[in-house]
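Incident log, support desk, overnight shift.

02:14 A customer reports that sequence design results differ from what the structure should imply. Their input is reproduced verbatim below. On-call engineer (initials T.W.) acknowledged and began investigating.
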């Protein structure tokens, strides 16, 4: 994996653990030479992870709709900043640039992007497998993970589809598990060999 798209809040959240997680994820990505693709903002956790990746000499590609760019929400010190016509084009561009996705704590936008990434994996929309991870800082995603288990028990989600994402509180471990899935998904199936 060369680039990870990180979805996260435009707010910093109520706990310092969320900001600490952004810094730790940035270091773990830099240690593995993984570039950051994200929503291009300079505020909240978005700004925190971008600044932290840059401070660790990493590449940061921001993708932001033109309207938000004009409202001066954009981070002005990135390696590369791409503007798009709207949110739909933004998400498509971010997905096309990334080899995988991580959701850090965030609000409705983060959750919407997370579920889209999982759904696209489920439907095999990506041209190659793209693992999805939840960085469970301070237990932020515990209840969501429980809810998804409930949806499985109620037969709205297939049991095997819960494996479409990985959850961990440690950024390095999360990246390693995602890399394992990425590499195993790229190996040819021996049953398909002539």
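02:41 Re-run completed on a clean worker. Output:
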């Amino acid at each position: 994996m060369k680039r990870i798209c990180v979805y996260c809040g435009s707010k910093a959240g109520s706990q310092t653990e969320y900001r600490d997680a952004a810094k730790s994820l940035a270091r773990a990505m830099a240690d593995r030479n993984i570039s950051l693709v994200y929503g291009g903002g300079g505020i909240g956790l978005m700004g925190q992870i971008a600044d932290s990746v840059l401070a660790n000499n990493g590449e940061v590609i921001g993708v932001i709709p033109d309207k938000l760019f004009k409202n001066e929400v954009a981070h002005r010190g990135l390696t590369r900043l791409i503007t798009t016509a709207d949110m739909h084009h933004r998400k498509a561009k971010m997905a096309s640039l990334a080899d995988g996705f991580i959701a850090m704590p965030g609000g409705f936008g983060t959750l919407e992007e997370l579920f889209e990434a999982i759904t696209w994996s489920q439907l095999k929309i990506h041209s190659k497998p793209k693992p999805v991870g939840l960085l469970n800082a301070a237990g932020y995603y515990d209840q969501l993970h429980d809810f998804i288990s409930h949806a499985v028990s109620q037969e709205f989600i297939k049991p095997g589809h819960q494996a479409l994402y990985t959850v961990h509180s440690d950024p390095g471990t999360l990246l390693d598990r995602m890399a394992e899935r990425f590499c195993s998904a790229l190996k040819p199936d021996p049953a398909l060999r002539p």
